[in-house]
Structures are given as structure tokens and as C-alpha cells.
Automatic annotation (TrEMBL):
This is Glutathione S-transferase. Residues 1-80 form the GST N-terminal domain. Gene3D superfamilies: 1.20.1050.10, Glutaredoxin. It comes from the Bacteria. It holds the Pfam family GST_N_3.
Length: 202
């Protein structure tokens, strides 16, 4: 398998963590690229020019992090991240994490191209309100850090989104406001899969 990614995408990091948690890191070749540079190999794999993109062993290209995670969970079920016994709950938390990731990522991109004043626009203000609501929801729902041998997809999505907030939007300072959530997050990011995939600008 091949995975197109970069070091700052929360979506690509989610997939990397899934691969590590499932013990599949040796089965994947990482293809580092700049999605903003119209990399020809990336565009061939995904005409949208978005990462991550996974090319399966059969040569099928898969895009969008959650869809890739669902595929990996189905194709390599030895360490399930979508346990059927509480699937709805896992997908619920995954949705919260994905929405937080999207609100934060879109804020970062909007600021990059239009300056921080974009936060004062209707859409910018709406994104910031969504971030706070999602943080409040996650703070009320997530308790002790998971101790299972494999994380579920919801836990991965939520923790990656929180890490991305701390990385790209530190002024949100969510750890100070949402102490229970910060404690939960700290317990998750000590795992080797998170340590090995930490966000970096280098």
C-alpha cells in the first residue's frame, strides 16, 4: 500500500495513527507531498489534490480519512477500530472529532489566504463558535483515557482534532478551559502511535 500525506494534515495523521494502531505501518510506503503544489503523482491518485490518499494492494485509490479508516478496519479486522458492540457510540465521537478537525482546518486555511480578519466574517465567526461548542461537547462526553490495546476510531479522531487545535490555533487555549478533556487527551497522546506522528512544520 501507499499513502500520500504531509506532516501538518490532521486528516493524514488520523490515517497514519490507524495504520500504526493496526500494526500495518510496515505494509505502507509513505509518499510525502505538498498538496498545494499540484503534485502530479498526487493528482493522478486523487484529482481533487487532497490528502490523504491510500492506494490499496489491489491498486484502488481511496480518499477522505474516514473512508480510508473504514476500509482498513474492514480489510484488516484483527484489531477493530469500529467495534460492532458499540458502533453508534464510536461513530458519534468520530463525527464530533471530524467536525472539530474541519472547523479548525478551515479556519487555518482561511486565515492563510485572507488574513486573521476573516474570523470576523459570517463564516469565520460561525466556525469559531462551532469549535467552542464541539469542545464543550467532547469535554462532557470523554472520561478516562482509553486503556485498550487498540484505540477506536472515535478516540483517534477526537484526539487528533484536539492536537491540531493546539498546534495551529494555540490561542484557543482549550486545555485551560476544558480540564477534563485536557486530562483525557494527555492520556491518549502518550501512546506510541501519537508520539510517532506528532505534528511538525519541518
Amino acid at each position: 500500500m501507499e499513502l500520500y500525506l504531509n506532516a501538518t494534515s490532521p486528516y493524514a495523521r488520523l490515517v497514519r495513527i490507524v495504520l500504526l494502531e493496526q500494526g500495518l505501518s510496515e505494509a505502507v510506503t509513505l509518499k510525502w507531498c505538498d498538496p498545494w503544489a499540484d503534485d502530479p503523482a498526487l493528482l493522478k491518485a486523487n484529482p481533487a489534490g487532497r490528502i490523504p490518499v491510500l492506494i490499496t494492494e489491489e491498486g484502488t485509490t481511496l480518499s477522505e480519512s474516514m473512508l480510508i479508516a473504514v476500509y482498513l478496519d474492514s480489510a484488516y479486522p484483527e484489531k477493530p477500530m469500529l467495534p460492532l458492540s458499540h458502533l453508534a457510540e464510536v461513530l458519534h465521537v468520530a463525527g464530533l472529532g471530524q467536525n472539530l478537525m474541519e472547523a479548525a482546518f478551515t479556519t487555518v486555511i482561511a486565515r492563510k489566504h485572507n488574513g486573521n480578519e476573516v474570523d470576523n466574517s459570517v463564516l469565520g465567526a460561525r466556525r469559531l463558535r462551532a469549535i467552542q461548542r464541539l469542545l464543550n461537547q467532547l469535554n462532557s462526553e470523554l472520561g478516562e483515557a482509553p486503556t485498550a490495546s487498540t484505540l477506536c476510531l472515535g478516540e483517534i479522531a477526537a484526539a487528533v482534532a484536539l492536537d491540531y487545535l493546539a498546534f495551529r490555533l494555540p490561542e484557543v487555549a482549550w486545555q485551560e478551559t476544558y480540564r477534563p478533556l485536557a486530562s483525557w487527551h494527555q492520556g491518549v497522546i502518550t501512546r506510541s502511535s501519537f508520539q510517532a506522528t506528532a505534528f511538525t512544520t519541518s
